[in-house]
Write a structure and sequence with these properties.
single chain; Rossmann fold; RNA-binding
Length: 573
RNA sequence: CGGGGCGUAGCUCAGAUGGUUUAGAGCGCAUGCCUUGGGAGCAUGAGGUCCCCGGUUCAAGUCCGGGCGCCCCGACCA
């Protein structure tokens, strides 16, 4: 590609409305432009990267035996009604009325669409297992789009859906996809770790997110440095120190605690450990108040609680509702004497002896509280957040935390969609069975942003060669010297013939501009044709990643450049 | 939806207490000359509904009211 004929739009300064490194660099290098908040278009240069990522994903999907299809992006509301997600997905889903007042949905994800495709075309167990996929646009009206292409309202996703006749089949399909994902991320130069994740509104039994560790990540991850347990905080489990003290049960007693109600203040006031407290929280689960009990030093994991309750909306109750439920202002709630409300206790309070809790009266707490004797808990559940410093549930090592960018997500979905949408095939015995599903997504745009986020320096992007917009660029030092131009053109043309993805910067610009643009854009190799070296019959190749330079005699140039490029590819295979 | 910041040329920004009538700079863009080993130099030129609407005033980019948009933090989110 000739730069003089291409669309190169580079900026010297950071755009003012970009904060993250990848966002700034994508704009500055002229990969994308912003149409509106959360809506980005790809410029020709960015599209080259995009297409390379897409190709790699497609190759690995095909290699894993998945079959590409293309359902409609505009989907009828009816299929969402069938699955029950028309309401669950809420405002995130972009809805459109057509001229006949029919409701259509711009697909935010495609479980329903693919399930419908399979329902229309697959009737026999002999056609299973099958994994279908597409690489297409998704639409989500995000509350807050951010970091450029990282979280936006229109984006490209590769989404795949597996259909199997039984769970064993699903396990195999899942593992195949999992391996394909590992391959994809390796090839695009990302170190993406599979991390145990919550299944969220997708439903299902097992799920893993592929996370690129980065401070920009929106997900908090707990991990064990010893046994490599990685889990999203929403899902992570851990071992905490239990209350083991053997104590005689003391009598229940009310204590004045004027204006003391945070756990921190209470700990000081009573001069004891936060582990002695039974924290009482009031939540609204789909608008019904519930009470949650948890040990004073721990936090409720709202994802776990939501999953346990099976509710759609969960939020902390307002002060008015707390007062209504507990008859006491915020900070003095306790389990004793509560009636007409569902109480769920985290397992952490089981062994608290002579605990302390609110008295459901202003400025009063109760001490000597004992479960069973003073109040009864009917529901115990594991709804506590694991946190850094807890012990690993597998090996006992201390857990640490880090942040990650979610670039892929794989789920064992189960029967949620095939049952709700009534998909059946006949099995060997002529009996109708529901296939079992898995689903698997890779965010293409987010993958690109993540690659930049971890591969950049003060001069710009440093692409892995597998996804770079060009593998190499020829830069003639002068735009006037006919000899330099001729040699540059010759090298350029000869490499095109060898199917190298090469560019030539034939713009009327100073070399400084060309070097800086090539660096900003992140092209792995610069082939520099300069006067002095050319007089000795040599050219120069400079690496983008570490700046190393090799000089090559002209007759060997083509062969040597191809070698360098092929060698580079090996790092990502 | 709460908190904070911002909105002037394609980009990044300057324009105090309203007042040189033609609103500026750097970069970019166009033309010419000159130059080419890390964002060169000189000259000339094009380019603006100062986010929008309303108000105050003899006079508003500047003050007041309302709205819209963008970014960040939080809440939220396959």
């Amino acid at each position: 590609m000739r730069f003089s004929k291409f669309l190169i739009y580079t900026l010297r300064e950071d755009p003012k409305d970009a904060e993250s490194i990848s966002h700034k660099l994508m704009i500055r290098a002229g990969l994308i432009y912003k149409e509106e908040s959360g809506l980005y278009g790809y410029l020709p240069l960015g599209l080259r990267v995009y297409n390379k990522v897409v190709s790699i994903v497609r190759e690995e999907m095909n290699k894993a035996g998945a079959i590409e299809a293309l359902p409609t992006i505009l989907t009828p509301a009816s299929i969402w009604k069938e699955s029950g997600r028309l309401d669950v997905m809420g405002k995130e889903m972009i809805r459109i009325k057509d001229r006949r007042d029919g409701l259509l949905v711009l697909g935010p994800t495609h479980e329903e669409a693919f399930t419908d495709m399979v329902r229309r075309t697959i009737n026999s167990y002999k056609q299973l297992p099958i994994t279908l996929y597409q690489i297409a646009k998704k639409f989500r009206d995000e509350i807050r789009p951010r970091f450029g292409v990282m979280r936006c309202r229109e984006f490209t996703m590769k989404d795949a859906y597996s259909f199997d006749i039984d769970e064993k089949g699903l396990d195999e399909s899942y593992l195949k996809m999992r391996q394909a994902y590992i391959n994809v991320f390796k090839r695009v130069g990302l170190n993406a770790l599979p991390v145990e994740a919550d299944v969220g509104s997708m439903g299902g039994t097992r799920s893993e997110e592929f996370m690129v560790l980065s401070s920009l990540g929106e997900a908090l991850i707990l991990y064990c440095p010893k046994c490599n347990y990685y889990a999203n905080i929403e899902r992570a489990e851990s071992i905490i120190q239990e209350n083991t003290e053997e104590e005689e049960e003391k009598p229940l007693q009310e204590v004045d605690t004027p204006n003391v109600y945070t756990i921190e203040d209470l700990t000081k006031f009573f001069n004891t450990s936060p582990k002695k407290f039974i924290k009482t929280l009031v939540y609204l689960a789909d608008n019904t108040p519930i009470v949650v009990l948890i040990r004073g030093d721990l936090d409720v994991n709202e994802t776990k609680l939501k999953n346990y309750l099976g509710c759609i909306e969960l939020e902390l109750a307002s002060n008015e509702i707390i007062e209504k439920v507990t008859n006491a202002p915020l900070g003095f709630a306790g389990p004793i004497g509560l009636s007409n409300v569902r109480i769920i206790a985290d397992n952490s309070i089981k062994n608290i002896k002579n605990g302390i809790t609110g008295a459901n009266k202003k400025d009063k707490h109760l001490v000597g509280v004992n479960i069973g004797r003073d109040f009864v808990v009917e529901e115990f559940a594991e709804i506590r957040s694991a946190k850094a410093g807890d012990k690993c549930k597998i090996c006992g090592e201390t857990l640490k935390e880090t942040k990650g960018i979610e670039v892929g997500h794989i789920f064992k979905l189960g029967y949620k969609y095939t049952k709700s949408m009534n998909v059946t095939v006949l099995d060997k015995d002529g009996k109708r069975i529901h296939p079992i599903m898995g689903c698997y997504g890779i965010g293409i745009d987010r993958t690109i942003a993540a690659i930049i986020e971890v591969n950049n320096d003060e001069n710009g992007i440093v692409w892995p060669i597998t996804v770079a917009p060009f593998e190499a660029i020829v830069i003639p030092i002068s735009t006037k010297d006919p000899k330099l131009i001729d040699i540059s053109e010759e090298i350029y043309n000869s490499l095109i013939k060898e199917r190298i993805d090469i560019a030539i910067d034939d713009r009327e610009e100073s070399v400084g501009v060309k070097f800086n643009d090539a660096d900003l854009i992140g092209i792995p190799f610069k082939i520099i044709v300069g006067k002095k070296l050319l007089d000795e019959g040599k050219i120069e190749v400079k690496r983008r990643d570490n700046g190393e330079t090799v000089t090559i005699p002209l007759p060997e140039a083509k062969k040597k450049i191809i070698e360098l490029i092929l060698e580079e590819y090996k790092k990502y295979s």
